[in-house]
C-alpha cells in the first residue's frame, strides 16, 4: 500500500511541520497584534460609552428632580390664587346649578372623546343648504 510507505510518510510529516510553523509565525506576528488592538479599542469604546450613558442619566435625573420642584412650586402658587379669589369659589353658586353644569361638561367630554375620531368625521359628507338649492 502506497499510503504506508516509509519514504512518503517522512516527507509528508516534514512538510506538515514546515507549513505549520510558517503559518503559526505568520499569524502570531502579523494578524494577532492587529486583532488584539481591535479588541482593546472595542473595550475602550464600550467603557467610554458606558461613562457617557451614566453621565447623561445622572444629568437627566437631576433635571427631572429640578423640573418636579418647579412644577410643585407653580402648582401651589396656582392653588393659592384660586383659593384666595372669590371668583372661582363654587359656594357663590347654587349647588344644583353647578351639578347640572358638571354633568353637562362630563357628557360633553365623553362625547368628544367617543365621537371625535377624525376618520369618522372625514367620512361624513356635510353639504350646506345653499349648495342643495
TrEMBL record:
The chain crosses the membrane at residues 6-32. GO terms for cellular component: mitochondrial membrane. It is found in: Mitochondrion membrane. Pfam families: YMF19. GO terms for biological process: ATP biosynthetic process. It comes from the Eukaryota. Keywords: ATP synthesis, Membrane, Mitochondrion, Transmembrane, Transmembrane helix. Residues 2-73 form the ATP synthase YMF19-like N-terminal domain. This is ATP synthase F0 subunit 8. It comes from Gelidiella fanii. The gene is atp8.
Amino acid at each position: 500500500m502506497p499510503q504506508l510507505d516509509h519514504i512518503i510518510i517522512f516527507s509528508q510529516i516534514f512538510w506538515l511541520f514546515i507549513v505549520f510553523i510558517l503559518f503559526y509565525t505568520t499569524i502570531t506576528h502579523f494578524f494577532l497584534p492587529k486583532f488584539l488592538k481591535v479588541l482593546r479599542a472595542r473595550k475602550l469604546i464600550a467603557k467610554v460609552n458606558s461613562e457617557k450613558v451614566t453621565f447623561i442619566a445622572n444629568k437627566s435625573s437631576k433635571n427631572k428632580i429640578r423640573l418636579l420642584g418647579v412644577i410643585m412650586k407653580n402648582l401651589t402658587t396656582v392653588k393659592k390664587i384660586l383659593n384666595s379669589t372669590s371668583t372661582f369659589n363654587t359656594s357663590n353658586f347654587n349647588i344644583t346649578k353647578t351639578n347640572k353644569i358638571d354633568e353637562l361638561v362630563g357628557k360633553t367630554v365623553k362625547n368628544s372623546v367617543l365621537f371625535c375620531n377624525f376618520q369618522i368625521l372625514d367620512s361624513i359628507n356635510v353639504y350646506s343648504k345653499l349648495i342643495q338649492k
